[in-house]
Amino acid sequence: MPHDHNACPDCGLPDLAFAVHDHAHCAEQVLARAEALAQDAGARMTPVRKRVLEILLENHKALGAYDVLQRLAAEGFGNQPPVAYRALEFLVEHGFAHRIRRVNAFAACMYPGEDHAPVFLICKTCDLVAEAPAAPVRAALDAAAQAIGFSIERSNIEALGQCPACRGAA
Amino acid sequence: MPHDHNACPDCGLPDLAFAVHDHAHCAEQVLARAEALAQDAGARMTPVRKRVLEILLENHKALGAYDVLQRLAAEGFGNQPPVAYRALEFLVEHGFAHRIRRVNAFAACMYPGEDHAPVFLICKTCDLVAEAPAAPVRAALDAAAQAIGFSIERSNIEALGQCPACRGAA
DNA sequence: GCATATGTGTTATATTATAACTCGTCAATA
DNA sequence: TATTGACGAGTTATAATATAACACATATGC
Ligand SMILES: [Zn+2]
Ligand SMILES: [Zn+2]
Ligand SMILES: [Zn+2]
Ligand SMILES: [Zn+2]
Q1: A66 touches strand D (CB under 7 A)
Q2: CA B63, B64, B66, B69 torsion: positive or negative?
Q3: Domains along chain A?
Q4: Count of H helices and E strands in chain B?
Q5: Nearest ligand to the CA atom of B128
Q6: What is the pLDDT of residues B94-128, one digit of tens each?
Q7: Residues with Cβ within 8 Å of residue A61, at least 6 apart in sequence
Q8: Predicted confidence band of residue B10 (pLDDT cuts 50, 70, 90)
Q9: Which of A69, A148, A169, B22 gets the most CB atoms within 10 Å of its CB?
Q10: Is the CB of B77 within 7 Å of strand C?
Q11: pLDDT for position B71
Q12: Nucleotides of D under 7 A from a protein CB
């Protein structure tokens, strides 16, 4: 296997957003794992929180807080910004979602519980966001920081460009 | 020399924001280089634009657009957001400043004209932002993207943490 | 059950960013 | 010389993103 993530052992599907895959399965697995992790951590995966994660998991795009809010409101949850922001904050804090600063948006984490520091590849054409294995990038970044005595606490590594499919179409 | 940037040949000072250095000299050199590059490119370094760059160059911190605007307004320039945003946009487009998305702010580029894709190290304690050499990080990122057929157009690599000085103090 | 912590919903407001129109300057043209 | 067109700067207005602070309910731990 050419990756270091937990691809689904059942189906062996590729684990990257850009690849064609059975996304329903993909989403279901991630949601289940997140719920289990929340339980283990004593964190409460309440209805709003779970629903927000489900919404993010609908596809591999990043959603703005207000997009999420609109969905929540339509489903009878609160319709004010804090409702969405708080749920998103919870998901990010617990590693169930990532914040993609380049586009002021949030995406479900596809590898919850794996303590990864991912790179995000954002297709500017189809808006898909892939969370790519980043160990070598992180290592290089850590080395650069260490060389000047800087200690990194959090980092974000994001790239904008075109995914294989969209590049092929152009 | 342990770096791949144009340190000043006159003074041989370290080229990183966190190091103690003659910053007046540092800023003056960068400003001069930027003005020369603008001229070469047929771009007009107008009074507002130059002033914004000078303001960013006052220290190695990143400034928000509204911080810049406040300074401009106090000096008799326009006092509406587009005045600041347009000057900042010009500087970023021409490689004279960088946008640091993690903190919604802008910092002068310390290596204008060098076609670098830097890493930003942001000290959460003193707010200083260092623009570190990033060739290895970029290489790792390019490799990760290439592995899945993604073509990168722009990327941002930012890390939040503590600089050597602030870490020493804690 | 009771006390407490936590989560949700609300109002209000802060912060960041852009659209669209106007005017002045300057330089190339007719 | 008058005209035009490009550009930059200033303005008004508004959009988009994000948080503070309070009221109330519900879950949790005792
Ligand atoms: Zn999927
Ligand atoms: Zn695409
Ligand atoms: Zn300096
Ligand atoms: Zn510091």
Answers
A1: yes
A2: positive
A3: 23-169 (1.10.10.10)
A4: 6, 5
A5: 4
A6: 999 999 999 999 999 999 998 788 999 999 999 99
A7: A107, A127, A128, A129
A8: low
A9: A69
A10: no
A11: 98
A12: 7-14, 16-21, 27-28
